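Cross-posting from the modeling subforum.

Setting up a comparison between two proteins and wanted a second pair of eyes on the formatting. Protein 1 (sequence, then structure tokens):
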Amino acid sequence: MSMSTPDIAVNIRNLTFHHILPGTRLPVTPEPTLLDVNFNLLKGSRTLLIGGNGAGKSTLLTLLSGKRMIQKGDMTIFGRDVFRDLPEGVTYLGTEWAMNARVRGDIVVSNFLDSVGGYRHKERRDHLLNVLDVNLDWHMHAISDGERRRVQLVMGLMGQWDLLLLDEVTVDLDVLVRSELLKFLREESESRGATIIYATHIFDGLDDFPTHVAHMRDGAFALNPTPWPLEASLMPPDGQLLKTGSLLHSVALTWLAEDRSHRIKEEKEGKRPVLRGARKQVNPTDSESFYKKYDYSH
């Protein structure tokens, strides 16, 4: 189906990306982190990125947020180049925020939100305070990781974003708050045409959330963003589907199991080195020999 440019939120063409060693132009590894990525996302879509650890989900989201430069390909958001002309209204929320020393300091939540411009978005800020059940009198250094995550989400979502990039930010939330957040995000998508790309490993309660799902493996797309629920021809065969919980959870679990089997098969065929799991060793390592000298437990 042909689509006019105004309908497209994200356009990625021929994207290949290597992580580069600091201070050089040399790649960290010969294999790219992302390889030949091509897809469009429509405005108002909600895409779920599914893939194992190291599949490239976080890298893709940080690239879309303009945090790193690509070496090959093109990425546009709302028709504008991500790296030279990033449009307003792009919000990225990742897990690293919680490790920032500033957000762990002794500052009251109300003052913290004011310091990042909460007073400019009073109506949306107050709505999110209710959705995420946040106490304005909390002290940032004295609350739990989950409560701190709620404050991050209020901060990040209170402006009127048009593209939201979520990288595992619901991992600390309790089930009720997560459900209320997903309801809010769906309403934003449907009422304002906002676009969401969400990477997560928690699939419970998500069956009705995405408009599209995508499967990433080894930095490439085993399945490009595809309307959800999947057509029967794209579903894992019933005999191979690892049924557990919801349909989405079952599909995700099956894909991840296939990814692991694919990797192990390639390792056995010598197509890639064996890097994971226990390692067979005949001679002790230097560190093992050293520590044995000072092991008085026997």
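Protein 2 (same layout):
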Amino acid sequence: MNHSIHSADRSTHLKIVVVALVAGIAVAAFGISARTGSDFTQTAHVTKAGKPVVVTSSDVSLVR
């Protein structure tokens, strides 16, 4: 087994690529399977603007 990626031969590089590809597919499959259990019916909640509000405080210090 080669412990350095620089001195690795072609089969070692191929093994690394295959392991990374399998791990990526596994993560994607897990994410997709976790998503399918949720409900896709979404409703938009509309919030309408009310009257203007003025917020004041007597503890405000003015710096000039």
